[in-house]
Design goal:
The complex is a heterodimer. By secondary structure, chain A is mainly α. Chain A has twelve helices and no strands. Helix content of chain B is 25%, strand content 34%. In chain B, helix 2 packs parallel to helix 4. The chains are: A mainly alpha, B alpha+beta.
Chain lengths: 287, 363
């Protein structure tokens, strides 16, 4: 009896897993399929392309090469190299700063209750509004200090917006580390900075990696702010992706191929730090 | 010169006064135990000495130098934490070497020092094991090793045996005692376990509500408790404490608790001037109440046995004497059972008398 019950339980478990996998991976599969299809197939329901082509990918880098007729044509003349680099810079540096500042802030809050309970709650409060509500004032403010279409503007904005997540996530991980370890190191003669470097950071690195990845993905996929702030210089990948479907034309295949390219860094990073993600997303419990 | 002097220490957390006024000193090679129930301020006192807490007022001197403003990393004090705080991501070797590396000692010297320490604490065979893989007894030893590798001026231990089950605790207590003798360093040991304090300390400071109730050698504390709290806290089973009043009848001084009476005329000089009838508590340790089947002593009183707890070499008898329950500890007697009538004799040399109001000892 117990055995059949166990089998039944497993069947249900795997069925659920399959449903979740299909649910999340089906759009990805469709995107892959679309990226290898020619314009004639873009509206067709078949998953496997009848005539697989790589023109979509080529078109990303050599946009002067039109695929099909004028209906499948956009005003894009620049290759995606610049948006790709822009995205790497903005998301990368934004993440780096958010993690750096966030870690120190989280440490202060966790260990010394810095700023009291209100401050830490207030940081969360700023994330309770939809981003669109402060897009307009941000535009005005940014143009007055000439931050529109600059890297500094975009990086600072990404840092500020994700800082809340950085603080809250990392505070959780630091809370998990008993302060005795740090005190023991202090009594061994280590300075507070050495303690941070040699004890706290090594013990929280799983959490830090998970937080960093989480924030990187947020920044990497951010669309609204990038759209508003960029004009020509700091266009990021999400903004670029949106441009392939415009009033002029609809290049679904090319758009899908850029979607695939944009997905690669997140997936690769996630794979690299998989081990830390397990401890990170289960929120510590290292003891 | 004393190794450590603590003067009028006070520590307030918000509205809670954890330490009210604590002063004591520790001599070279001496072990002082801060003993008291949880919340009595003993750990806070220890953390102030280590520099991990800042005192609200008061002074701490190490080697005659005021260290109030010296940060913990510069105090050269070793601390063994309750949970040992062994760095889980480092090997035993690196745990012991931690402080030496911080001080940028040359690698060869570190190696020598770690091996020397490892030999002392008997962890030579597990030097490569990671901190998180260690057992409790190993952690304890590594924690001590890490603290002493730097030749600290002072060693502090914060309830190092409290997380360990009874059986292992006995063994580790003995190990700790042996190690302490070998290291020979001035030590402050915090515990709530009076047995630990009795076996490991040279002197004990009994703490309650942020104050030291009594400080003295183990025998002073045990034999001459100065307050009701100390009398009750030290000893297992604890001292018999019986509410009573002092009455005089026919030139004799008598302690009376209901129908129970105890003649204490021989202490007349000591209790002179103490108003009669005042609320008093008399105390006697179970081992100072002897139990006999025959009436061998003229002062013996009749008692009924309510419960016998055989401990092997000794037995604890719960006696009912004229309506008062008294515990006695003595040799096991096969013929004494629940309901037996026996004769109990109080060793009056070991009698204690306390004022119930002030809780202070009269003698």
């Amino acid at each position: 009896m117990a055995r059949t019950k166990g089998v039944a339980k497993n069947i249900v478990r795997y069925l659920l897993l399959i449903v979740v996998c299909v649910w999340t991976l089906a759009p990805v599969a469709w995107m892959v399929s679309l990226s290898f299809k020619g314009p004639t197939e873009w509206y067709a329901p078949n998953l496997m392309p009848a005539q697989p082509i790589v023109d979509n990918y080529i078109n990303l880098f050599i946009p002067t090469n039109p695929i099909g007729g004028s209906h499948f044509f956009t005003s894009i003349t620049e290759p995606i190299t610049k948006p790709l680099i822009n995205s790497l810079i903005a998301a990368g540096l934004g993440t780096l700063f958010a993690v750096l500042v966030g870690f120190l802030a989280a440490y202060g809050v966790s260990r010394y209750r810095a700023g009291g309970t209100f401050t830490i709650f207030f940081t969360l409060l700023t994330r309770m509004l939809p981003g669109a509500t402060f897009v307009a004032p941000l535009m005005v403010f940014y143009s007055s200090i000439r931050f529109i279409d600059t890297y500094v503007g975009l990086i600072l904005l990404y840092t500020a917006v994700t800082l809340t997540y950085a603080i809250w996530l990392m505070k959780g991980f630091i809370d998990e580390i008993p302060p005795e370890w740090e005190e023991a190191a202090l009594l061994e003669g280590a300075s507070p900075w050495t303690v941070l470097r040699k004890v706290t950071i090594p013990l929280t690195k799983g959490g830090l990696a998970a937080s960093a990845l989480f924030i990187f993905i947020l920044n990497w996929s951010e669309f609204l702010f990038a759209l508003v702030i960029s004009v020509t210089q700091v266009t990021t990948l999400p903004v670029q992706i949106s441009k392939y479907v415009s009033a002029v034309g609809r290049m679904y295949g090319t758009q899908a191929s850029l979607g695939i390219i944009a997905t690669i860094p997140s997936v690769a990073l996630g794979y690299l730090i998989q081990k830390h993600l397990v401890t990170g997303f289960t929120f510590g419990r290292i003891r | 010169m004393p190794k450590l002097v603590v003067k009028n220490l006070r520590k307030v957390f918000g509205t809670f006064e954890a330490v009210k006024d604590v002063s004591f000193q520790v001599e070279e090679k001496e072990t002082l135990c801060l003993l008291g129930p949880s919340g009595c301020g003993k750990t806070t006192t220890l953390r102030i000495i280590a520099g991990l807490e800042v005192p609200t007022s008061g002074e701490v001197f190490v080697d005659g130098v005021l260290v109030n403003d010296v940060p913990p990393q510069k105090r050269q004090i070793g601390l063994v934490f309750q949970d040992y705080a062994i760095f889980p991501h480092l090997s035993v070797f690196e745990n012991i070497a931690y402080g030496l590396r911080v001080r940028k000692m040359p690698e060869a010297q570190i190696k020598t020092k770690v091996h020397e320490t490892a030999a002392l604490i008997d962890v030579k065979s597990i030097l490569d094991a990671l901190g998180k893989k260690l057992g409790l007894s190993e952690m304890q030893r590594v924690a001590i090793g890490r603290s002493i590798a730097l030749n600290p001026k002072l060693l502090l231990l914060d309830e190092p045996l409290s997380n360990i089950d009874a059986k292992a605790r006995e063994r580790m207590r003995a190990e700790l005692g042996k190690l302490q003798k070998e290291i020979g360093i001035a030590t402050v040991y915090v515990t709530h376990d009076q047995l630990e304090a009795m076996t490991l300390a040279d002197r004990i400071a009994v703490m309650k509500n942020g104050l030291i109730e009594q400080i003295g050698t183990t025998s002073e504390i045990y034999d001459n408790a100065r307050t009701l709290f100390v009398a009750n806290f030290i000893g297992s089973p604890s001292m018999n404490l019986i509410d009573c009043e002092l009455v005089y009848s026919e030139e004799r001084a008598i302690l009376k608790s209901g129908d129970f009476t105890l003649d204490i005329t021989e202490f007349a000089e000591t209790i002179k001037g103490k108003p009669k009838g005042k609320e008093l508590v008399f105390g006697i340790r179970p081992e100072n109440v002897s139990v006999d089947i025959e009436k061998t002593d003229p002062t013996a009183v009749e008692a009924e046995v309510q419960l016998v707890e055989p401990l092997g070499a000794k037995s604890i008898y719960h006696l009912k004497i004229s309506g008062v329950t008294v515990l006695a500890k003595g040799h096991p007697m096969a013929e004494v059972n629940v309901g037996s009538k026996v004769w109990a004799t109080f060793n009056k040399d070991k009698l204690h008398l306390f004022d119930k109001k002030t809780e202070e000892a009269i003698f």
